Structures are given as C-alpha cells and as structure tokens.
Amino acid sequence: MTVRRTSAVIAASLLGALGSPALLPAAAQAHGAPSNPVSRAYACGAGTAQQKSSAACKAAVAAGADVADWDNIRVANVDGRDRQVIPDGRLCSGGIAAYKGLDLARTDWPATKLTAGAAFTFQYAERIPHQGSFRIYLTKDGYSPSRTLRWSDLETVPFATATDPPLQNKAYTIKATLPKGKSGPHVMYTIWQNTSTEDTYYSCSDVVFAAAATTTSAGSSTSRAASPLAAPTDAGNPTAAIANAAGADAAPSSGGAAPSSSPPPLTAASEITSTPVLAGAGGVLALSLAAGAFFLRRRRRV
Questions:
Q1: Residue 56 belongs to what H/E stretch?
Q2: How far is residue 196's CA from residue 73's CA, in Å, rounded to a whole number?
Q3: How many domains does the chain have?
Q4: Kind of pairing, strands 111-115 and 167-168?
Q5: Environment class of residue 62 by beta-carbon count within 10 Å: exposed (0-12), middle (13-18) or buried (19+)?
Q6: Cα 192 off chain centre by
Q7: What is d(CA 63, CA 103) in angstroms, rounded to the nearest whole number?
Q8: How far is CA 148 from CA 18, 87, 101, 156, 278, in A?
Q9: Which long-range contacts (CB under 8 A, 24 or more apart) does 84-91 make?
Q10: Each residue of 235-273: b (16+ CB within 10 Å) or e?
Q11: Which helix (H) or strand (E) holds 250?
C-alpha cells in the first residue's frame, strides 16, 4: 500500500470515528438565568463582587452549588410537569445535586428591592439563545425565607408570561406589572421551558417589596405638626405679641375709621413723654408761691 493510500485510509477512519454520535460534541443548548431581579445562581456566579462574596453565596458554594455554571440549572423532558418532577425544598436547584446549595433557607440572599403594583422590566441573561416560553411566579403572602421553598409557597398562577420575548443586550426582556399588596421578602420563581430543546430551566430570585405609601391619619398629623412652622403664632413669644399690638394701633384701618380707644401698652417711650408734663406743673406752683410772698411783703411795708 502506498503512503498516499495509507493516509487516505487513516483520514477516512478518523472521519468515521468523529461522525459517530457517541464522539461528536453535544449540540449547543440554551443557557441562562435571571439577572433582574438577580437570581441566586447569577448573583453568586456572575454578579457583583459584593454579591459573590456575600455570606449566603459562600454558604451555598460550601453546601454544593456549582456557581461557575450559573446558567445551567436545567432538567430535560419535564414537558410542563414541573410540580411532579421537581421536589419540594429543591425548587431553586431544580432538584439537581450540583446546585443544592441554592436551596438553603436563608434571610440574607442578595435581593432586589421592588415596589408592589409598579411596572417592571424582567431580564433573563442568556448565553446561547433558544426559543421557549417563560412563566414567572411570586410567593404567597406570609412566605418566610427561613424555610426552603415549596410549591405550596408559590401562587398557582404566574403574574407574568412570555413566549419568545425579545433578546436585548444579551438578555431576554419581559415587561410586566408587579402584583399589588405585596410587602417584605418574597421569592420570584422563573420557569423557562424551551421549545427548541427538551430542557426546562428553574431560577429563584430573592426580592423585597417596599411598604406601600399610605394617606392615613399619620400623614395628617405630620401636616398638622408642620403647620405652626408655616404660620407662627404669638403664643410663647411676648416680644412678638408686643410688636404686633403696637403695629396694629399705629396703622390706620382701610376704611379710615378712628383708631381704637384702648390705651397703648406701657413702654419706656410713653414714660419719657410724660416727664415734661410733670416738670411744667412744678414750675407753675413755684411761681404762685413767689407771687404770694411778694404781695405779702408789700402789704407789710404799707
């Protein structure tokens, strides 16, 4: 056999081996996880330095959470049977042992602050895009993060759904309105069921709803407390009271009526004004006495 023929045979053998399904690389699968609100897997694997170094993320890794593959929490051939396939207490890991650390019941997971009833843009970070539908659930009122997540903790109906949403800035974008009446800590649970693959993805995002603003008596009392500052009174301020009274007596009325007959308040200025009057009276008395003495002396001479 010539060298050329031998090379051809070897090449054909290699191509045949590579063509074998057992040796070919697996077809690219969809990968992703929610980035807003940030999911536990994304926060610990691709989030900020503060999120990745958080106590919750460190505990998750120690308990078993392959956060380097934060986008790979997927289960094949579920076909919508999520509640039958994924066991209680294992929802955040999708029941996958490599991610069981994400199921830890903790109150310090990196969380996103939300406002109940507000418009919200959900973002699902994606590495390899595929077709599929999203279902986004929230936990029921009374949910406690101190226990692992169960199916009974979730509302039975998703508050947002989307099929093949637009991919913007490497993230699927879904616009929705958050449920009203929510407050405190909750979990947003996202299920992404692919239609171009056999996989379904599961994610837990910890969120905290701010308390709704109210217009109760507390608000009214705040307004009432502020009103003295807006319109101060003379109570407790004698100087202001005296100044206001003096100004009222000095100013003429708009109708030209006579001023009030009530005496003005006693001030140092009124005392000074009365001093010349007392001095004049004393002068008249002295003059009268001198005149009387003059006439008396004249009668004695006569």
A1: helix 55-64
A2: 17
A3: 1
A4: unpaired
A5: exposed
A6: 28
A7: 9
A8: 45, 11, 11, 18, 97
A9: 86/151, 86/202, 88/148, 88/150, 88/151, 88/152, 89/148, 89/149, 89/150, 90/148, 91/148, 91/149, 91/150, 91/151, 91/189, 91/202, 91/204
A10: eeeeeeeeeeeeeeeeeeeeeeeeeeeeeeeeeeeeeee
A11: helix 238-250
The CATH number covering residue 92 comes to: 2.70.50.50
* Six token digits for residue 45: 């694997």
The residue with tokens 């290699």 is 14
Query: Which pairing describes strands 167-168 and 160-163: parallel, antiparallel, or unpaired?
Result: unpaired
Q: Give a yes or no: residue 110 inside a domain.
A: yes
> Which region, left, alpha or beta, applies to residue 256 given φ > 0 means left and ψ of -120 to 50 means alpha?
left
- Tokens of residue 156, six digits: 């039975």
Q: Are 37 and 162 in contact (CB under 8 A)?
A: no
Quick: pLDDT tens for 19-41. Answer: 433 333 333 445 899 999 999 99
Which structural domain range is residue 54 located in? Answer: 30-210
Instruction: Give domain status of residue 45, yes or no.
Output: yes
Report the number of secondary-structure helices (H) and strands (E) in the chain. 8, 10
Residue 300 lies in a domain: no
Q: Which candidate, 153, 147, 182, places its Cα nearest to that of 37?
A: 182
Residue carrying the six token digits 């199916």: 151
- Three-state DSSP string of 172-197: EEEEEECCCCCCEEEEEEEEEEECCC
The rounded mean pLDDT for the chain is 74
Q: CA separation (Å) from 253 to 110, 240, 249, 250?
A: 69, 21, 9, 9
CB 32 within 8 A of CB 201: yes
Residue 235 in any domain: the answer is: no
pLDDT digits (tens, 9 = 90+) for 39-48: 999 999 999 9
CA angle 31/35/37 to nearest 5° reads 135
Report the alpha-carbon distance of residue 112 to residue 206 in Å, rounded. Answer: 7
Question: Of the segments 151-160, 244-253, 282-291, which one has the largest average pLDDT value?
Answer: 151-160
Q: What is the mean pLDDT of residues 51-66?
A: 97
